[in-house]
Amino acid sequence: MRLGVAGAAVLAFGPLAAGADPPAPALAKAVEDLEPYFTPQEKFRDVSRGKPLPHSLPDKRKREVGLTRETWKLEVISDPDNPTKIRSPLTQKDGTAFDFDGLMKLAEKHAVRFAKVMTCLNIGCPLGMGLWEGVPLREVIWLTQPRDNLRRVFYYGYHNDDPQQMFRSSLPISRVLEDPFDLPPVILCYKLNGKWLDSERGGPVRVVVPEAYGFKSIKWLTHVVLTNLYHANDTYAEGNNDVDTWLKTFAATLSVPHEVKPGAPIPITGYAQVGLAGLSKVQVSIQSNVAKRNDDGDPLATGNWTDAQILPPPKHWSDLPGGKIIAGTPGFDTATGQPHTWPMRLMKVHWATLLPGLPAGKYILRTRTIDEKGIAQPMPRPFQKSGHSAIESVDITVKS
């Protein structure tokens, strides 16, 4: 079974390895049908807020309110309620607001790009996987010459000139000015997968926070506020969410045959989101749905977990120019375009397995990850408000 899975992975992502057993046709087909690795902008799942949605505005209105590259302006100011000392605020009123030309000037020296899966805190499944490009937010903050009493930064985007629609996020200033644990910087993003960021994805400019869930990566950015406030003031805090959480590691299925014949092998594919904890294994378990649970009702304690095959990085990076990683992307070899390590944090990977045939009956398939510290999903953070972590369960019926 392992050789079959490995063969299918190689068949889908590169030349068939010499001496490898031929992959099971059903599994090879399932791997070949996997979703593109990088998500085209138009295929991202949309959870935008606003009435009307800002990206749905007519082009004329977008130009009027600064939602085009030609008319975009960014104000960077001190919080009037908890002021930070800055020498040179960037404001519309004084004609000093930061514009797209200024952003491109900074990009000549400071542009960065990184791969990141974008996930909503309260949905769980990723919205899309992208290669994001922009300028570190700190480069713009330093233009204001901050001097003292700066503890946090909060930011928000265009919200139809209606304060009730404002969606705001915040970060400690330390995270913006310095990148801990080799993380990429927080960026003012203007490109996705090598193309200009379109309006539906938050263009012309949005924030992208590499390790965070989507609510930290505000779309249609218009204001950055430097503050001496000592606590987070995110809009999401009002919804009983953990506003300081980072991406978790978890697995889910993509293709599962819900009905198979007795004795027929069962091809399964899926993805794993690789959070800050990294990923060492993806495992699956299949049990009769009448299997007894232990005393506290936990079906996972009796699961017979087996390792699935984590598929290698693709040879063709879909939706990127020429299918190649853009040169200079951190974590990737400049000559080959392949990652230095795999799986890579903050990204997703695909996995596959071929389960042996089963007798007639009804079964439950479960999937989980084991992170680089050996901790199995849903731990170490099993709470929904701190991000998705629940074990996925899928019903499979075996009958003639």
What does this structure look like?
The chain is elongated and about 75 Å long. Helix 1 runs parallel beside helix 2 (about 25-30). It has a five-stranded mixed β-sheet with strand order 3-1-12-7-8. The chain has two domains: about 1-35 and about 250-400, Immunoglobulin-like (Sandwich), CATH 2.60.40.650; about 40-240, Alpha-Beta Complex (Sulfite Oxidase, Chain A, domain 2), CATH 3.90.420.10. The longest helix is centred in the first third of the chain and has 12 residues, at about 1-15. Residues about 1-20 and about 290-295 have low confidence and may be disordered. The chain has six helices and 21 strands. With about 400 residues, the protein is an alpha+beta fold.
Helix content: 10-25%
Largest sheet: 5 strands, mixed
Structural class: alpha+beta
Fourth-level CATH superfamily of the largest domain = Oxidoreductase, molybdopterin-binding domain
What is the level 1 CATH name of the largest domain? Alpha Beta
Poorly predicted regions: 1-20, 292-297
Number of domains: 2
* CATH third-tier fold name of the largest domain: Sulfite Oxidase, Chain A, domain 2
The overall pLDDT average reads 91
